[in-house]
Specification:
about 260 residues, alpha/beta, TIM Barrel, 8-stranded parallel beta barrel, binds phosphoenolpyruvate
Length: about 260
């Protein structure tokens, strides 16, 4: 029988950067090279580092990361269809074909700007998994929803409508990210208690649906104004397995300082 402590140790610690719509091709390559060099020089733990970049960078970043297992590359979005007449869109198969391993699904900016809802996001998760891409599925409530006391209901609905159709093998391939919308890019982080409370809730929802072992294995990242100063307190919480980092992922020193929080734990 494996003790809960050992299971906790087995959970993958992950720090993922989300560059959003920043950096031209040359700037992206330069930043990624810096990140890789710093990770090689400074990071001694076994945490996974993922960079989710714009599509134009994907192929080159995958090439730069070759042979360095600690760093993987992901996209920030995919279309829900396999292929076809969807001008301007990029498919999961295309992303996978350049060697990317991850894709962000359900970021609040896509939910808000492009009207992406839970049912569409379920389709995106399915097409990602079908093409061997691991989804980083983002969930989060707005400030209005939190103030109305509806935050647990919102997260529960996002999980139910986008994730809970998956089978046990599929849920193991997912990374979850709790990102309160009011905390993204605002400089306001959820308190460590608020974050832990929600991560615990999410893990319990996974346990109710897939069993405790699956819940103990899944990585749940926190996202929302994480920086080198606040990361240690946030990542110290038992149900927080790392972070999804926006603004601070655009500076290699800050980003790798956040990754390095796990070296100390
Ligand atoms: C994000 O975009 O996922 C994010 C968490 O952004 P920031 O770190 O800038 O709040």
């Amino acid at each position: 029988m494996i003790s809960p402590h050992v299971i906790l140790q087995m959970r993958q610690k992950t720090v993922a950067g989300n560059w959003k719509m920043n950096l031209d091709y040359q700037e992206g390559l330069a930043l990624f090279s810096e990140v890789i060099n710093r990770v090689k020089a400074e990071v001694t733990g076994i945490q996974q580092v993922i960079i989710c970049c714009p599509f134009i960078h994907l192929h080159a970043l995958v090439q730069l990361a070759q042979g360095f297992e600690k760093t993987a590359v992901g996209a920030q979005n995919i279309h829900q269809s396999e292929s076809g007449a969807h001008t301007g869109e990029v498919s999961a198969k295309m992303v996978r074909s350049v060697g990317a391993a991850y894709v962000i699904v359900g970021h609040s900016e896509r939910r808000q700007e492009f009207g992406e809802g839970n049912v569409l996001l379920a389709e995106k998760i399915d097409i990602a998994l079908k093409n061997n891409l691991k989804p980083i599925f983002c969930m989060g409530e707005t400030i209005k929803e939190r103030e109305a006391g509806k935050h647990f209901d919102v997260i529960s609905q996002q999980l139910t409508e986008s994730v809970f159709h998956l089978n046990e093998a599929q849920i193991d391939k997912l990374i979850l990210a709790y990102e309160p919308v009011w905390s993204i890019g605002t400089g306001i982080t959820a308190s460590t208690e608020q974050a832990q409370e929600m991560h615990f809730f999410i893990r319990n929802q996974i346990a109710a649906e897939y069993g405790q072992a699956a819940a103990d294995r899944i990585s749940i990242l926190y996202g929302g104004s994480v920086n080198p100063e606040n990361a240690a307190d946030i990542f110290a919480k038992p149900d927080i397995d790392g972070g999804l980092i926006g603004g601070a992922s655009l500076k290699s020193r800050d980003f790798v300082a956040i990754v390095n929080v796990f070296n100390r734990s």
